[in-house]
Amino acid sequence: MITISHLAKKFAVDNPKKLSEQERQDPRLSGKFFHSVQDVSLTCEKGEVVGLLGPNGAGKTTTLRMLSTALKPDSGDIQIDGNSVVAKPLLARKAIGFLSGATGLYGRLTGRENIEYFGQLHGMSKAAIDTKIDELSEVLELHTFLDRKCDNFSTGMKQKTAIARAVIHNPSLVVLDEPTTGLDIMAAQTVLNFINGLKEQNIPVIFSTHHLGEVAELCDKVTVINNGRTVFNDSLASFKALAPDSLHQAFLTTLSGK
Ligand SMILES: Nc1ncnc2c1ncn2[C@@H]1O[C@H](COP(=O)(O)OP(=O)(O)OP(=O)(O)O)[C@@H](O)[C@H]1O
């Protein structure tokens, strides 16, 4: 089980002139700090898929980066099966498969080499890496480009390769930051099927998205973040019940604080 409790993260603002107009008006700007995440809590049980929703700049990526250990929280805690991610980051890195917003593939390497490299970093044997790549190639439909250099991959090819790379080590929790953004309908469906496959294997998934249709299709739970705070954290059924005819209206209701 994953428990995120009262996370907070602020960033120093070196030059306020570099902030956008929206950020300058944002209540999270206080003195020399921008309090990106102020109080985020959520839970995810084995086999559950949690959808993380929120307007642009709400704090979703910052939250997921703390969960993946890329950022250290200022306060709050994250526990995976009773172990604190903050206290034991190395343990957490083994347990989590994290897809960040930037795919960051090595362009001079092939897709396969990029994935293999991560497997090696995780200490996997060549045989275990090969077996896992075969499996991922099947479910993520990588065959046609797996042995091409990543340099001129399409957005979809890059994203599928980055997802395969993120889960090469058989993580016990998968965290995906906007996994379908920029993908065409077929590639997005492949990624959604992949998430569904993880769910069937009882592997918990937490993913951020702006697509409410994906939430309806896949999620057991919904967490909405607004201005760095959790404003909704409940089952998909409870989310839908906020406005039975429209998920968009349900989402807007969570933001209005009603
Ligand atoms: N390293 C940083 N330094 C300063 N401000 C930051 C930093 N990282 C994020 N922020 C700010 O924190 C806020 C939350 O950003 P975050 O990327 O977490 O939002 P998000 O919910 O993922 O948004 P989007 O849906 O647009 O991806 C934004 O205003 C962003 O500019």
UniProtKB/TrEMBL annotation:
Q: Which PROSITE patterns match?
A: ABC_TRANSPORTER_2 (PS50893)
InterPro entries attached to this UniProt entry = AAA+_ATPase, ABC_transporter-like_ATP-bd, ABC_transporter_ATP-binding, P-loop_NTPase
Keyword annotations of the record: ATP-binding, Nodulation, Nucleotide-binding, Transport
Q: Which GO terms describe its molecular function?
A: ATP binding; ATP hydrolysis activity
Question: Which residues belong to any copy of the ABC transporter domain?
Answer: 22-252
Q: In which family does this protein belong, per the annotation? A: Belongs to the ABC transporter superfamily.
Q: Provide the protein name.
A: ATP-binding cassette domain-containing protein
Q: Which organism is it from?
A: Salinimonas iocasae
